[in-house]
Amino acid sequence: MLGCLITRYKRWRRDKLSEKRPWQEWEYLVLDIETSGLDAKRDHIVSIGWVLIKQGQIQLDSAQHLLLDGAQVDASVGIHLITDGDLEDRGRREESVIRYLRLLLRDKVLVMHHSPLELGFLKSWWRQLKQPSLSISWLDTLAIERTKAARSSQPIQEGGFRLAPCRMRYGLPEYQGHDALTDALATAELLLAQVAYQGKGCRLHDLLQMGGGHVILGSKQTLKR
Amino acid sequence: MAAIDVSEVQKFILSTPPFSNLSTAQVTTLLTGISISYVRQGQTLTLEGEAATLHLIRRGACEIRTPKGALVDQIADGECFGVSSVLAQNPDGLEIVAMEDSLVYRFDKASFLTVIAQSDAFALFFKHTRHHRSRKLLRTQSGDINTPALQLSTPIEQVMTRQLIQAIPEETVQVAAARMTEARVSSILIVAGKEEKQRLVGIVTDRDLRSRVLALGITADLSLAEVMTGEPATLLPDSLVMQAQTLMSEHNIHHLPVVSAEGLPVGMVTAADLLRHQELSPILLINQIHRQASVDSLARVCKQWPILIVNLILTDMKPADIGKVLAAVSDNLTRRLIELAIKTLGEPPMAFQFLVFGSQARSDQSLGSDQDNGLMLSRAPTQTEEEYFAALASFVCEGLGECGIRLCPGNIMASNPDWRMTAAQWRQVFSNWVTSAAPSALLNASIFFDIRCVYGDDESVANLITEVQKDVAKNSLFLASLTRSALASKPPLGFFRHFLLESSGEHKHQLDLKHQGLALINDIARLYGLACRTYRVGTIERLEQAIREKLITPDTARNLIDAWDELNGLRLDAQRRHWQSSGKASAYLDPSVLSPLERKHLKATFATIKDAQEIVLQRFARGYA
To answer: How far is A57 from chain B (nearest CA, A)?
Structure first.
């Protein structure tokens, strides 16, 4: 029991210290989901898109776009964890997607634009599919943007925190499409821009303070069962 | 792992050349391994290690700079950089500096090389980009002189003050002083004549008020006519900054009125206006020339000359302006050599003029121009005096040679006793050319009709020119002969309008831009120049004068001026390239290095010359070739 506590303390300390390392020493999974509605309890995830940031750069090869509604999984989706059988069975397909996502997320920081919605859906998804719990750090580009606006006391109009106007402030291109992957890429680019504006030596710690936190996906209850 | 379609990225790549011409499979290959980064304005990207690969700007703008910070290129959305870091290991150590916040795609080196190997067109595009950049790099490496040279060619028009503070000669000193104070200027222009047509007759400066009025205790009721500097030195609006500087230092003045060709004042340039142009390199060279006390040290200083010329060419200075700058340098060099000769040989026994002919007179020298000059003595010299001038002339001509202005192969030099004559003898020689009108006599004489005085009182030269023009006007046969001799060379347009190239010798199949192009225009302009009432010596000035005197249609003249500019530009560039690669200045151009469009353009240029030759033939030789 004590050993367990010491291990947890060491891990906590390590994580705390490592948060002080430059941001680009971390890997990030920038995620966007499309849902059938806004209620995480009633509605379900229609599609997920994500892209990874490593060494401070978006790795386009890591981009994924997964459709969970119906059997219309994009043929080019190349997840080795999804089998043909999964394609026919929504439950099993979801199962492999969440497994894959869980694997990826283990050593990464989750990034979203407007976290309450995404986190809500992820939490309930984790519970529904009875996934082992996963403790992660997350960043919200919207929250970061809001903090920045508050710090510089520059009022931003209503709606000015949506993804497109945020991007426009950093001179990022306008994107036509609004599927989960495009929005994930758009969010990733926004994060790079926000970090660039933090100047040299930006740490994960700084970003977490501006708009982020820690969350445990999947409750202990799920773990026990 | 193969990349999946990220539609926004793919859409952009597919709409951007040269990527747009790739096959779907090639695009997929290229997209493999792309990473995206965001660069803040002012941030520097190095192209080393993993970053030594092709980059594409998705949004933003960057500058490509040398390690020393000189600008090579500016690029923006849809443009690439890092090509040479892949294909040539970035030998120049170029750096990328973001001018705006930029979103940049970095391609995977292996993927890029795979596609380069697959698609010739794609590879060619990047080869071109690289050559284009290295050309620009070459230009920036001469960086230090770049900007000043550009400033130097700035027309006075852009530097001058347009606010005209004027008075008439009858007004009092007091009125003028009040007007100057009110306008906060240090000089006032004195004009006379009817309104709208007030010609400049004088200038009064602060210094004049001090030295000619106050210091002498003279009353302020004095009229301006009594204190002004009459007929002051002036500039035309299209004069160069450098000419203004030379004029100011020569006359030790700080104010130069700018007048239009009609003699109406249009502006004013002061030394203060020119202050920011002081660190200019041709000026520096001229100043250095004037500080040297021996031919040896002059020759050393003039070693910079070809470099200066190359730099002027590289800065894309207008060919006509380069000619003017070079003329200013060689005029000053000539004068300095004469001064040194006088120091060595003692004061000259009589007044004399040092005449220049040909390209120096026309102010269209370039790399490797040779010297053509002569001496005009005010009276017949005695034996000793003749020896003095022989010594002076060879001192100057050999000195010019040592300073890089080649001796004239035709021996048209002051060191040749044939071209050391009294004013009367010069008059006689010209008169013989004009009246005898024997084509053989004219064959080598035409360059003498481009004549300018660079040392001594130029009034006797002006008189000579006036007399020659009178003779020309009386002897219509002369211009006809001169025309026929000028038309003996044709522009290199064959029957099929193909280039007729030098078919033998070192420059086989190359185009002699000077003798097959520029010289023909100079010949045509000389004909018009001699037919005009007002003598001009530069080719462009002659053609412009001919428009004013309605001897030539503005269209024909302007086409010829354009042709001259174009050929001169090509010649200077060809010479620059030859000089940089071989240390020799050759005006030969290999037409195969021209793009089809440039070739078409060049053909049109030669066609213009041919048309003008026809017109000249009709005008001056009544069509009898």
So the answer is: 5
